[in-house]
Amino acid sequence: MITQVLHCPYCQGVNIVKNGKTPQGKQRYQCREQVCEGRTFILNYAYQGQSRKVKQQIVDMALNGSGIRDTARVLHISTSTVIKELKKQTQLQPVNLLMLKQSDCESIVVNICVAKLDLMTIGMESKKR
Ligand SMILES: [Zn+2]
After folding, report:
1. Number of Cβ within a 10 Å radius of residue 77
2. Ion ligand 1 contact residues with beta carbon within 5 A
């Protein structure tokens, strides 16, 4: 007989009980630790975007400057899952708001440079080849 010790994916606690099955027949578990307040989880999600590990990776990648499509491609999940998870993270704030609080908006000077490109010439040259 093999005994497997389960750890809660949220608090890493071991005070876990079985809590029925999902409609797909997978075993659902409930964490009985005080900090989790009865959170439930399953061990192998059919869609990886639902797992705690991938949700944490979404936040980590966003904090390291990865875009939404970049994150979705790397983690093999949909872009809407990435957006949904980032909206849940209330501690995340747009970078520009932090910058605006620190700087004096009246004194910011923006230089706009316009690059002129002759698209007709480029198109003609590519056709010649
Ligand atoms: Zn827990």
Report:
1. 21
2. 8, 10-11, 13, 31, 33, 36
